[in-house]
Amino acid sequence: MLAGPVSDSNSSALAPERIKGENWVMALVGIARLASGSELLEAKSRVQYFEIPTRSILNRTKPNMPFAWTINPYRGCEFGCKYCYARYTHEFMEMAPAEFEEKIYAKEAAAQLLRHELARIHRKDGIALGTATDPYQPAERRFGRTRSILEVFARERGRHLGITTKSDLVVRDLELLREIARGNLLSINVTITTLDEKLARLLEPRAPRPDLRLGAVQRLSETGLRVGVFPNPVMPLITDSEAHLDRLAKAARDAGAQYFGGGALFLMPSAQAVFLPFLEQHFPKLAPAYREQYQKNAYLGRGYKETLRARIAKIRERWGLGTGPADYQPELWPGEEQGTLFSLE
């Protein structure tokens, strides 16, 4: 890290550390160098907010994804979900996985960039808002980058847009979302991993309570918007039982959801660094099996995923829920299939 201010009396003693810090910054390249020079916008007791220069707001996805482009108005996410796969994105800025929830970067000139870039892509290309960081995390109340992006889409026609969030703040933009839906194909995915408030607080320490998210589903549905619930990621032996998923699907249907997702947990090394110690503290009996499985491969095996898919399909049919405009399917991310220690049998 950069050395702090140096007083005259200590300047000779601290000069080498200062030079080391400056050399470290000069050695950084790309997004890491931009992050190191980002302006501090605001700070709370545990979180710092920065603004980071951005060359592009639309990110091209890899082949076989259910959408062509993604938009993430922020880097980092304050919700601090223990399982979050996107922690690896802070590694590009030479930061530790835990800093993903402590240093939040608002992207500069998001709306202006989007207006410029939309002119160059096909109107039917699917665009997903909020794939790596939540577009309605607490930073949005301060900086409004998501709303500025939605204001651009409200002037568009014929776009295919999906929004994924686990925040009830989405209802703030009801009128704007209705305007977007009048001229574009819009779907809103609300992530609810569990209805158990105590479990949710452990897994997602600073995310809104499950009942608040269900309330958001109901408000969105009552407004005529297409909305679904994603119980993602489904975690082996924690949230994957039929009773657990069935209760959640029924609550989603009762709140007005039209579809129900369901993708298995995957853990990249950066996510393992947070999630595995969390298991050892709160689920010590499960920790050894998780560690053995995920240290071999970030992805669960085909057998587990096929059984989970069948279970969720049966639950969807029971409650009259669709599969959604584009299911969240982490198995489509790059990775090799291997066996699994977990079984749904």
Summarize the structure.
The protein is α/β, with parallel strands linked by helices and 345 residues long. Helix content is 38%, strand content 13%. It has helices at 11-27, 30-36, 110-118, 139-143, 145-153, 174-183, 197-203, 210-222, 242-254, 269-282, 287-294, 302-319, and strands spanning 39-43, 48-52, 59-60, 69-71, 74-75, 103-107, 126-129, 160-165, 185-191, 226-230, 259-260.
Give a description of the structure.
This protein has one domain (20-266, 303-332): Aldolase class I (TIM Barrel). The strands form two sheets. A seven-stranded mixed beta sheet has the order 3-4-7-8-9-10-11, with helices on one face. The protein has a four-stranded mixed beta sheet with strand order 1-2-6-5, with no helix packed on it. The protein contains twelve helices and eleven strands. The chain is 38% helix and 13% strand. The chain is an alpha/beta fold and 345 residues long. The longest helix is centred in the C-terminal third of the chain and has 18 residues, at 302-319. It starts with 10 loop residues before the first helix and ends in a 26-residue tail after the last helix.
Provide the helix percentage: 25-40%
Low-confidence stretches: 1-29, 326-338
Structural class: alpha/beta
- Based on CA inertia axes, which overall geometry fits? globular
Keywords:
345 residues, alpha/beta, TIM Barrel, 4-stranded mixed β-sheet, 12 helices, 11 strands, 38% helix, globular
How is the topology of this model organized?
Elements: H1 11-27, H2 30-36, E1 39-43, E2 48-52, E3 59-60, E4 69-71, E5 74-75, E6 103-107, H3 110-118, E7 126-129, H4 139-143, H5 145-153, E8 160-165, H6 174-183, E9 185-191, H7 197-203, H8 210-222, E10 226-230, H9 242-254, E11 259-260, H10 269-282, H11 287-294, H12 302-319
Parallel strand pairs: 2-6, 4-7, 7-8, 8-9, 9-10, 10-11
Antiparallel strand pairs: 1-2, 3-4, 5-6
